[in-house]
Amino acid sequence: MVDELRKNESLGDLGEDRILSRLADFGGWNARVTCGIGDDCSVCRTENPAVDQVFTSDATIEGIHFRIDEDPVRVGRKAVSRVLSDIASMGASPEWILINVVAPKEMKLGSLEAIYEGIQERLNTLGGVLVGGDLTEGSVLALHIFASGTLPHGTAILRSGVVNGDLIWTTGKLGGSAAGKHLDFIPRVREGIWLRNSGLVHAMTDVSDGLVTDLKHMIETKKVGAAIEARVLEAMSSVDQALYDGEDFELLFTTSPDVEESVQKEWRKTFAKPLWKIGSVVTSTQEIQLHDEGTYRSLPGGYSHHF
Amino acid sequence: MVDELRKNESLGDLGEDRILSRLADFGGWNARVTCGIGDDCSVCRTENPAVDQVFTSDATIEGIHFRIDEDPVRVGRKAVSRVLSDIASMGASPEWILINVVAPKEMKLGSLEAIYEGIQERLNTLGGVLVGGDLTEGSVLALHIFASGTLPHGTAILRSGVVNGDLIWTTGKLGGSAAGKHLDFIPRVREGIWLRNSGLVHAMTDVSDGLVTDLKHMIETKKVGAAIEARVLEAMSSVDQALYDGEDFELLFTTSPDVEESVQKEWRKTFAKPLWKIGSVVTSTQEIQLHDEGTYRSLPGGYSHHF
After folding, report:
1. pLDDT tops 80 at residue A304
2. To 5 degrees, how large is the angle CA B101–CA B106–CA B111?
3. pLDDT tens, position by position, B20-73
4. Do A42 and B132 touch (CB under 8 A)?
5. Distance from CA of residue A147 to its chain's centroid?
6. What's the confidence (pLDDT) of residue B304?
7. Which chain A residues have a beta carbon less than 8 Å from that of B6?
8. Rounded to whole angstroms, how far apart are CA atoms B304 and B22?
9. According to the model, what pLDDT value does residue B115 have?
10. DSSP character for B90?
11. CB-based contacts of B148: which residues, under 8 Å, 6+ apart?
């Protein structure tokens, strides 16, 4: 009954999370879907039993994800990097890419080509081959990018792998994305593959909507909580920026506390940059708590996109 | 030099064909891409040497592909059927589907769900499993749908398979799509798979932009021409409607003239509807000619989308 009434509510009134949970019911399942709608990518069996395929898509739209006067090379970089970050957060290698572009008829060919140069730049570095797409006229520039990736069967790292007592890590500093990082970030494809290969990671996602929102999506899968250390976030940027800025596109993952030293050591040998241990998974609460010198406070929910 | 000057031209002045030929240069190639940008789908090798995968994406946008007051179930049907028609035109079976939606915040949840019902209806009948997507707020309703499909290695039917002397066929009547067929058509997935299995088809595409435009895309690949019979088109709808209406979403394919009778006979046994033989491939011209009781005329180019 409540469900039926909702049908008359507008998308703007409902908010993204409730709309998505309704739409998820239309997601299909068959014996070859290992993980359907709800994670960073879906995970599907392939014709080769040793290999799984992951799928994701993202929209990057003028006025929402970039300013109308933004350098088109940076727009292309961001658009494709967002889907590559989803692929990375499963621990997969990018494979096939398709791009639907909606562009105003006044746009110069040079600008459109510059967008594709930005896309090509990232694909050349991180993998993924552009094999298709569509072009339509429209008043607002929009890039809808689809990506597939592959990884060994059964090794995709889901959000739902989170375990009580796990340490929570990020692959880099959070916060301050508005200064330009949100356009020029390099998706952590190599790091994701390395982490998956390590066999030590329980759960993983990328920080796109902000630490609080993305961590919440992870802990909700197991109805657990998280304790985050304020002093670590302070060392990244500021506590508030690290918690809420979003568009950091670092990987957020958990491991058993037993492997703390080995993960740190091997990571540093490979990437020559620090791995950030930001807190741990707890069952004393189902919230995210910020711990600061012996005191703590519960954190309100983060950013919920548009709608 | 000419190329450099083009960079300052607007997309509207250039037109779709020239834009797409520039963008195709950004398409990637590696040893596993059998057919890149330029056909109805790209064709890629998979981890299983016996199976190829095909990929396509299409945009379906309010005001361009459907009216603002259209029944949302029909909008969903059309959006997904367009990509399923691309999959059909390679002879492939649909597999994974992702949908990026851009929707106004005033839209009712019930309308959005009705779009997904239309999509689900087609997938339930024709195959393909919805495994992902994205939702963004925007003033104009847009559906960007991505689809993959599979088929036995090396069996994808390309436009470029066309051979001089081939007969040209369509799987159904052309013309008159504006009366509603463009929303409710059933993509010829079963027919496409059957035709591929027959082993008799040289080249195939779907009639989306209109017979003249889509046939032109086929014969251009081999710099050959086509002779079309006016009396056959007349029997479908009217000559002009059949040539130019577009959005018929029938399959357009060619076979050797030697198999004319066996194709007709086997087709009729399976589908209980006629197969339409509309003309033949010729080398006397690189145009499309309309033949009518001993006379003929060259046909001007067809509809070129938007831009």
Report:
1. no
2. 60
3. 888 988 988 788 998 988 899 999 999 899 999 999 999 999 999 999 999 999
4. yes
5. 13
6. 57
7. 109
8. 16
9. 97
10. T
11. A55, A148, B53, B54, B55, B94, B95, B96
What pLDDT is recorded for position A267?
A: 97
Strand partners, B203: B254
Q: Are A187 and A56 in contact (CB under 8 A)?
A: no
Using an 8 Å Cβ cutoff, are B178 and B244 in contact? no
Spell out, as residue ranges, where chain B has pLDDT lower than 50.
1
Mark out the alpha helices in chain A (DSSP H runs): 2-6, 11-14, 16-23, 72-88, 109-126, 181-184, 189-198, 211-220, 230-236, 239-244, 260-271
Residues of A in contact with B125 (CB under 8 A): none
Kindly report the CA angle at B113 between B107 and B119, in degrees rounded to 5?
120
List A residues 149-188 in contact with B (Cβ-Cβ < 8 A): 150
Q: What interface predicted TM-score (ipTM) does this complex get?
A: 0.94
177-236 of B, contacting A, C-beta below 8 A: none
pTM of the model: 0.94
For chain A, percent of residues with pLDDT exceeding 90: 84
Query: The tokens of A173 are what?
Result: 């500093």
Q: How many CB atoms lie within 10 A of CB B259?
A: 15
Supply the CATH classification number for the domain B159-298. Answer: 3.90.650.10
For range A280-300, the mean pLDDT = 93
Q: Is B199 helix (H, G, I), strand (E, B) or coil?
A: coil
For residue A135 the two structure tokens come to: 């072009």
Nearest CA in chain B to A111: B7
Q: Show which of residues 53-82 on chain A sit within 8 Å of chain B, judged by CB atoms.
A: 53, 55-59, 61, 64
Residue A281 CB partners (closer than 8 Å, separation 6+): A162, A163, A164, A165, A166, A167, A168, A219, A224, A225, A226, A254
Q: Is B14 on the interface with A (CB under 8 A)?
A: yes
Q: What class is the B2-152 domain?
A: alpha beta
Pick the closest to residue A247 from A158, A192, A184 (CA basis). Answer: A184
Confirm or reject contact between A295 and chain B (CB < 8 A): no
Separation in Å, CA of A184 to nearest CA in chain B: 20
Residue B164: per-residue pLDDT: 97
Q: How far apart are CA A286 and CA A277, in angstroms?
A: 20
Measured between beta carbons, the chain A residues lying within 8 angstroms of B130 are 26-28, 37
Does residue A179 have a pLDDT over 90? no
Pairwise CB contact (< 8 Å): A103 & B11: yes
Provide the pairing of β-strand A295-298 with B288-292.
unpaired
Chain A residues 81-120 with a CB less than 8 Å from chain B: 96-100, 102-110, 112-113, 116-117, 119-120
pLDDT of residue B162: 97
A47:B48 CB<8 A = yes
**Residue B303: predicted pLDDT:** 56
Contact A188, A143 (CB under 8 A): no
Which tens digit of pLDDT belongs to each residue from A77-122?
999 999 999 999 999 999 999 999 999 999 999 999 999 999 999 9
Break chain A into its structural domains and give their ranges: 2-152, 159-298
